[in-house]
Amino acid sequence: MTSRNKSARAHRAGTVPYLFLAPAMALFTLFMALPIGYTIYLSLRRTKVSGLGLGKGARKEIFAGLGNYAAAVGDGELWAGWLRVLAYGALVLVLMLGLALVFALMLDAAHVRLARLTRISIFLPYAVPGVAATLMWGFLYLPSLSPFGDHPFLSADLVTFSMANVAVWGGTGFNMLVLYTNLRAVPREYYEAARIDGASELGIALRIKIPILAPSIILTTVFSVIATVQVFTEPTTLRPLTNTISSTWSPLMKVYRDAFVTGDLYSAAATSMVIAAISLVLSFGFLRIVKNHAFGEG
Amino acid sequence: MRVNRLAVAAAAILTATLATACSGGSDEPSAPAASQSAAPAGPVKLTYWTWVPNMDKIVAVWNQAHPDIQVEVSKQAGGDDAAAKFLTAAKAGNPPDLVQAEYQMLPSFVAADAVADLTAETTQVKGEFSEGIWSLVTLGTDAVYAVPQDSGPMMLYYRKDLFEKYGIAVPKTWDEYAEAARTVHKKDPKVFLGTFSSKDPGWFAGLSQQAGAQWWSISGDAWKVAVNDEATKKVASYWGGLVKEGVIDGMPYFTPEWNKALNDGKLLTWPSAVWGPGVLSANAPKGKDKWAIAPLPQWNAGENYSGFWGGSSTAVAAKSPNKAAAARFATWLNTDPEALGLLIKEGAIYPASAKGAALMTGAPDYFSSQPDFWQQAASIGATARGFTFGPNVNVTYNAYKDAFDKAVAAKSDFAAAVQAMQDATIADMQKSGFTLAQ
Questions:
Q1: Pairing with B141, which of A55, A99, B169, B207 sits 20 to 30 Å away (CA)?
Q2: Treating both helix axes as pointing N-terminal to C-terminal, what angle do B2-25 and A34-43 enclose, rounded to 10 degrees?
Q3: What is the pLDDT of residue A58?
Q4: 3-state SS of chain B: helix, strand, coil percent to 5?
Q5: Gap between the Cα atoms of B278 and B264, Å rounded
Q6: Residue B433 and residue A260: Cβ atoms within 8 Å?
Q7: What is the ipTM of this complex?
Q8: Which tens digits make up the pLDDT trace of A3-41?
Q9: What are the backbone dihedrals phi and psi of residue B171, each rounded to the nearest 5 degrees, phi first?
Q10: CB contact (8 A) between residue B433 and residue A48
Q11: Is B65 strand, coil or helix?
């Protein structure tokens, strides 16, 4: 092999991967990097009004430094929103993933009748768009329209549970399907061996199936954490029906309010960067804690 | 090594992004150079954002008569979303030539430099409008930022038949209203005389206007903000007391529950505006011919005041290249007898112009048992006190919803909610740099 030949091949190996990567990079730049960059730019600016603020040139856009970030981090309402989302998220994560796991294990157990029908009926709510689902539940929650009678589903004490219920109802089926599909891929011989050794169905579920499912459980948990951090549809849709949900109930609602209700795009940009940072920390933090289980590294 | 290269690439992308973003964002002040060319070659084309139903039919009449100025209607959803959309379009440099602007949103449009000053084009039509309505489009300055279109003087809608059933008279004062609320609720705990809506700041603003509030005013070169003035606190405390007592319900307007209560005769009154018949006929069909109108109850016996809830105007975008043509259309639409007739008939609006209000005849179908509906409405409308809206009404209104939501849910002090509105308004204006008077 001559040295010329070698360098030519090295050269080729150098460009081809980038050629393959180019479409992905272009899309990433266009739809991720550019908008994020523009958001960062906006978050560093603010409007400056002089005098009455009426007429030409009374309103200017100026550089604000980190002022918007300081305001976002120092805003008690934003942190109160995080606390509300934390309570809501804990409910949703535990209930939704717990139910998804139980349903997946039950459907996978031997001799289940009507497994297909049950599977579809549990999954079906996932196909209902969030707004429609929330409206439907909203009507069920309203005292004078509810078939459940005069219950305070939307009172300050219960509204978090009522909202979590909508998310659990909508999300359980999807998570169950991820877990169930994973279970179906496990060779049946494992279970047979366990049965020959005298394991009960419950024992198989606890000692074999759940450990095998660990990576999928972690995956669905990460997805669910990201989804709960971004909770917006349920509270926004229920808000007009009750007076127990404020315009800043969740952090994303505050971003929406700042950007489109009170017209402060700059604060909204800064707050959304803070939210992005927090959700990165949460999801990567979780992955780090459980990484031994998630990727089988040790 | 590979990681490093990736990081460099990512950094390069980000820098490029920032550079384009910077150059993209800073084109604010160089736009209005090519406005108003003397003689346009072809017919002028105008775009018009509005949510008045059947506006395309009304515009067709104009287009027929004015081949040189063709207007194209783009139907909007209305409300706060429409205002946000217009502000965004104006900021992006791509607004429609004409836009329907609710009175309370107009100051934000002016503050964002999104609408044109029409003083020269509107001197001839100024006399068509009452003082109170005209001040809504001048904001108390010498400029004119829009042509008034419709207005929403407030009145009391009440269930005639149920008033008889429960043996109460139409309340003349708010004290009588409170007394009637107690009577009704005592006779049937499931029935309320009315409800306090924490979702409708415009409604509360109208009631405060009636009491003589002046939330914003201009003194010299500074804004004076008095959302927490005595009149407003009086109104808030009055309703807060009734909610706390439990004789007035706390459910918001326009919800499915509210519709049902209206339809089932569980709500006996609605202090609302002149556009109420449309809402009632759509949401409470069973109440047809059972509702009647009266002036709002008064704070002091013998007084005769009302306030405005809603109403909108036609504004011309500051960046429109055809401002003169757009202003001509806006004045025609809102002052020409033919256009006013069409607005009433096709658009079902209550015109702001005095000439237009006089054209209202018959009665809304829902109120066919009250043939003098429009005459009554006109005499009530003449008593409406308005006020100047400020440049950040959206902030104040949002604070209303949040603060009163909490106050109604907790049955706590309504005056504190008014203070929260004042604080939010002031904080936002200070942050932006408005000059504030003490």
A1: B207
A2: 60
A3: 78
A4: 50, 15, 35
A5: 18
A6: no
A7: 0.84
A8: 555 555 556 667 888 899 999 999 999 999 999 999 999
A9: -70, 130
A10: yes
A11: helix
User: Does A152 touch chain B if contact means CB atoms closer than 8 Å?
Assistant: no
Task: Compute the nearest-CA separation of B255 from chain A (Å).
Answer: 6
Q: Is the pLDDT of residue B62 over 80?
A: yes
Nearest to B53 by CA among B309, B348, B352: B348
Tell me the C-alpha distance between A287 and A280, whole Å: 11
Give the pairing type, strands B216-219 and B222-225. Answer: antiparallel
Asked if A55's CB is within 8 angstroms of B143's CB, the reply is yes
Residue numbers of B between 199 and 218 with CB closer than 8 Å to A: 199, 218
SS3 B436: strand
The encoded tokens of residue B271 equal: 């202090």
- Sequence-distant (≥ 6) Cβ neighbours of residue B47 within 8 angstroms: B71, B72, B74, B96, B97, B98
Do the Cβ atoms of A286 and A217 come closer than 8 Å?
no
Pick from B95-104, B115-124, B361-370: least confident: B361-370
Secondary structure string (H, E, C) spanning chain B: CHHHHHHHHHHHHHHHHHHHHHHHHCCHHHCCCCCCCCCCCCCEEEEEEECCCCHHHHHHHHHHHCCCEEEEEEECCCHHHHHHHHHHHHHCCCCCCEEEEECCCHHHHHHCCCECCCHHHHCCCHHHCCHHHHHHHHCCCCCCCCEEEEEEEEEEEEEHHHHHHHCCCCCCEHHHHHHHHHHHHHHCCCCECCECCCCCHHHHHHHHHHCCCCCEEEECCEEEECCCCHHHHHHHHHHHHHHHHCCCECCCCCCHHHHHHHHCCCECEEEEECCHHHHHHHHCHHHCCCEEEECCCECCCCCCCEEEEEEEEEEEECCCCCHHHHHHHHHHHHHCHHHHHHHHHHHCCCECCHHHHHCCCCCCHHHCCCCCHHHHHHHHHCCEECCCCCCCHHHHHHHHHHHHHHHHHHCCCHHHHHHHHHHHHHHHHHHHCCCECC
Instruction: Please judge whether B256 and A142 are an interchain contact, meaning their C-beta atoms are less than 8 angstroms apart.
Output: yes
CB contacts under 8 A, A 79-98 vs B, are: none
Structure tokens at A291: 């990484």
- Where are any strands of DSSP class E within A20-95? 45-49, 59-63
pTM to 2 decimal places: 0.85
**Is the Cβ of A76 closer than 8 Å to some Cβ of chain B?**
no
Torsion of CA B270, B275, B277, B281, to 10 degrees: -100
A177 to A119, A128, A188, B211: CA distances (angstroms): 8, 16, 18, 61
| Chain A residues touching residue B191 (CB < 8 angstroms) | none
Angle between helices B256-263 and B276-283 (to 10 degrees): 90
Strand pairing category for B269-273 and B291-294 = unpaired
